[in-house]
Amino acid sequence: MAAPLEDLETQLERCIENLRQIRIIVSDFQPQGQNVLNQKIQSLVTSLQEIDKLKNKVQDIHVPLEVFDYIDQDKNPQLYTKDCIEKALTKNEELKGKIDAYSKFKANLLVELQKTFPSELNMYRAIRNQ
Predict the structure, then answer these.
(1) Rounded distance, CA 130 to CA 10, Å?
(2) Which of 76, 81, 88, 98 is the most buried (most CB within 10 A)?
(3) Is residue 11 a contact partner of residue 50, using CB atoms and an 8 Å limit?
(4) Under 8 Å CB-to-CB from 121, ≥6 apart: which residues?
(5) What is the pLDDT of residue 87?
(6) H-type helices in 1-130, by residue range?
């Protein structure tokens, strides 16, 4: 699955580079540069056609919309993954704390129930172990 993504990345980089070069040529356009500009435009069209051919190979890949928000904010999209992992670790710590608290509560509850209702708790344990 990595090969189609790598091919797409390569084509996108080529397209971006062609656009960059076209921008430079157009911003300081000289009539003698028309042939070079035409070649760059043709190269851009070819790159876009290649990208279009690759779309079927990567159509099953889903990108979270938040990644595009990162890109729109001029952030590195790889920061999205880092942030997701940090959020997951934080949530994991919260849940672990809750699990520990409930485990302690259960243990204390069983101790108190054993003191207050010993026969009923023994019946409960017998039924639960069946």
Answers:
(1) 63
(2) 81
(3) yes
(4) 110, 113, 114
(5) 94
(6) 2-27, 34-54, 65-72, 78-116, 118-128
Location of structure tokens 């485990």: 103
How many domains would you assign to the chain?
2
Inter-axis angle of helices 78-116 and 118-128, nearest 10: 130
| pTM for this prediction | 0.52
Q: How far apart are the C-alpha atoms of 18 and 15, rounded to whole Å?
A: 5
* Beta carbons of 8 and 54 less than 8 angstroms apart: yes
Give the domain-ending residue among 42, 61, 80: 61
Amino acid at site 91: K
Segments of the chain scoring below 70 in pLDDT = 1-2
State the residue range of the domain holding 21. Answer: 1-61
